[in-house]
Amino acid sequence: MASTAPVIPLRPSKDPQSPYDPQALVCSECSIRQFALFGALTEAGLERIHYHIASLHLEPGQRLFAAEESGSAVFTVRRGVLRLERSSRAGERRILRLAGRTDLVGLEAVLGQTYAADAVACTEVEACRIPRVLIDELLPFHPGVARDLMKRWQRALDDSEEWLTELTRGSARHRMLRLLLKLSEYGEPNGLIWLPTRQEMGAMLALTFETASRLVSALRREAMLLPLDARSARVDMAKLLAALNAEQKLNP
């Protein structure tokens, strides 16, 4: 489980010169607040918050929450990339989708359900833990929060369906190219991306380790993919898009 920074209540400060508790001020000034769940809240809305929000930091490989664990909170990703994955009874692991900056994960908790998948950090991750009881308190007073939750639920469903249709069907090369395009959505403007292991690529794309390795080697020879270290690489987007276009013409 992730280590947590000190939890600070989001109660208004008694100091008249400081209308909000420090953590409330952090929330109001957060760079992703307009894209996050509480983006629907005004400053006055923050005054109604009476529970705790915790800042979490995860190292690569650390788990944010586990499948079948009691869902008591949702999480907003502020930085980094998470993977949502499940393991079958036979021990086979499948990566269902990724989550990145501004994404809300663990939505099952809103309904009091257990988490449906393991959430594991691919890179260093910063996230905010939002207790379910806090959401329950806000909903009667802020319909915008309810609408935002519905939009995020739909987006998570769309992402899962896209993963199923785009990354597990078609030729092996097409799947790999689509994966690189997807990873670029969570990467840096300069084309720097998190690079999964060959095993993880296989789990994402329903490919064998050998096939994933062969495809990565081919992309390196084409100078489309430039690994920088074991877990990061740079993608040539122009070559990637041209390759995708050519692949789609061959396999419409």
From TrEMBL:
Secretion signal, residue range per the UniProt entry: none
UniProt cross-references to InterPro entries, sorted A to Z: cNMP-bd_dom (IPR000595), cNMP-bd_dom_sf (IPR018490), HTH_CRP (IPR012318), RmlC-like_jellyroll (IPR014710), WH-like_DNA-bd_sf (IPR036388), WH_DNA-bd_sf (IPR036390)
SUPFAM superfamilies: cAMP-binding domain-like (SSF51206), Winged helix' DNA-binding domain (SSF46785)
Coiled-coil annotated residue ranges, if any: none
Assigned keywords, A-Z: DNA-binding, Transcription, Transcription regulation
Superkingdom: Bacteria
Residue ranges constituting the Cyclic nucleotide-binding domain according to the UniProt record: 37-156
Gene3D superfamilies: Jelly Rolls, Winged helix-like DNA-binding domain superfamily/Winged helix DNA-binding domain
Name of the featured protein: Transcriptional regulator
